[in-house]
Amino acid sequence: MAFNPTRLEVARKRRGYTKRRLASLASISDRRITAYERGEATPPLETLQKLAKVLRFPLLFFERPDLPEIPEGAATWRSLSRMTASQRDRALAGGRLALEFNDWIEARFVLPEPALPDMRHEKDPEVAASALRVHWGLADKPIGNVVRMLEAMGVRVFSLAEDCQEVDAFSFWRDGKPFVFLNTMKSAERSRFDAAHELAHLVMHRHGRPDRREVEKEADRFAGAFLMPRSSLLAFAPRGATLGDLIDAKRHWRVAVSALAYRMHEVRLLSEWHYRTLVIAIQQAGYRSSEPEGCAREMSGVFEKMFRSLRDEEVSKRDLAAELGWPLPELRALIFQLVLSSVPGHGTKSPSSEPKPDLKVIG
The whole model's pTM is what? Predict the structure, then answer.
């Protein structure tokens, strides 16, 4: 049988294993793992079966062509400083699987073309966020569903579903297509902010910048301004706000209570003392780790339409995973929390003023 050494490396990293750990679990030597991954040797069928079992990937996975590459240095990470190399490698391996899945989708469906302007010359994140809203015709209204808005503008959105605090989100451009990966184990409000943060990277930092810490600050400022426009806050945010007032008001913009407090302070609706008082109250209430009055989880319009079309053709998720040569949990991880498990045909609707993702079957 054919054997693709690059897929062994991807599967190993996806499971978070070192070569030594994989060798131990499969009862073979470290050197043999290295030789297999370098393509210097081909594992006998019995050995490959053991590796496949340990890695929880079907044999077919290791026979298929090379997975698409994520361009070197292209991924912009939300929390790189807190991540271990293993966590980063695991997320990137998931990203390569998503690229293969995206290629499968685009071979069968027509997705929206990217409509993200290049704003790398705009130095002020607030101005960039306002300009993008104007460009997309959003005015200053709250955004009902950030995921569907991004999809409508040609962004390919996938789930990370990594159950750890260190992996928030990342994004990159590949072959003229923008990709965003969100950790959907976070709160719905946090995922919305992360999505807007990654949007900043896609439009403002497309070609990369060496000052990564400053870039992250810019993306946070952009996200706050994009989700909570200054004019909207001045019109609707409560004056002399208590914590209870913030919890009520955050529903309007569907953001975390801490993000709303920060943004109100940024536009000078809260004094320094008032803001610090609210921060203490938020911390004491435990709202840094759990969100009060949480908003509904955002669903993907693209995945909903795609799986409905496949269901009409009697193609299940299990069938799709088998065609890709993946274990079913890997497919589920890429769409986790972005689509209802049963795809019943109804979910979170976007306001009519927002763009909606379109998806057409290639005949």
Answer: 0.91
